[in-house]
Amino acid sequence: MNKKVTVPYLIEQKRSGGKFTMLTAYDYPTAKALDEAGIDILLIGDSVGMVVLGYDSTLPVTMEDMIHHTKPVARATERALVVSDMPFMSFQISAKEAMRNAGRFVAEAGAEAVKVEGGEEIARTVSRIIGMGVPVMGHLGLTPQSVHQFGGYSLQAKNVEDAKKLIKDAKILEEAGCFSIVLEKVPAQIARIVTESVSIPTIGIGAGPDCDGQVLVVQDLLGLYEKFVPKFSKQYAHLGAEIRKAAGQYAKEVKAGEFPTQEHSFNADDSVLKALQDMEDAEKE
Ligand code: KIV
User: Fold this and answer.
1) Does domain 7-237 have CATH number 3.20.20.60?
2) What is the DSSP string of 225-275?
3) Is pTM, for the whole model, over 0.85?
4) Could you identify the atom of ligand 1 that is nearest to the CA of residue 115?
5) Which has fewest Cβ within 10 Å: 29, 66, 128, 259?
6) Which ligand 1 atom minimizes the distance to the CA of 144?
């Protein structure tokens, strides 16, 4: 449980049939808690754009946003593998740009691997990044950076042609050197076929129980993003409601003069108070 999670460890988990966990993290305290809870992989997902920065999609997220959020997660994490998501436009333009950006995540921000969305069309880029020694996690199925191409966030790989393409893309990513593949919002039976077709671990989100690992967006798990709750997610806590309760109580106590009390205050030295009193008395004379 305390052993550092590495890429070879995750591949071994697949061989031995062990399940593993991934959650997103975007800040120091959350990452520290998730790491201490034994989560195996912390993903600084570009979902930060929606669940933390309040955008309608992940498309406006920049490299600078991702570096900014990766740094505190890397500082907080001791055991989990730290993986940064390559945002829209950071890897699609050229393999050279993708290599530079992947390198920045490792050298500047402390990531140990990167994640990229896409299949066959990015295989060459994936190989080049791996060639520089940076492990790559793939991402197939519903790839949110292609939301406009899909026309929304709908279930993928529903027909024979798309399911065949998903299986083919997974094999291509494995051949390109990916150490794992996220499968997002695809039918459970198709995810199982993909999982059985590759020797690297699959990590499901809305992809049923048969993937080698599972991932959720931490705000969804904690009940902190209330704009939309995906069907495939599970709220293990309701922190949005807890925050409203705590902030409401604070406001009530301040307005009623109940906070802060003596217990939360600092006392001046008697000598200081006496000097101030003497000054005031002298001014009066
Ligand atoms: O950005 C993200 O959080 C992701 C996960 C949903 C896998 O890509």
Assistant:
1) yes
2) --S---TT---S--HHHHHHHHHHHHHHHHHTT-SS-GGG--PPPHHHHHH
3) yes
4) 8
5) 29
6) 8
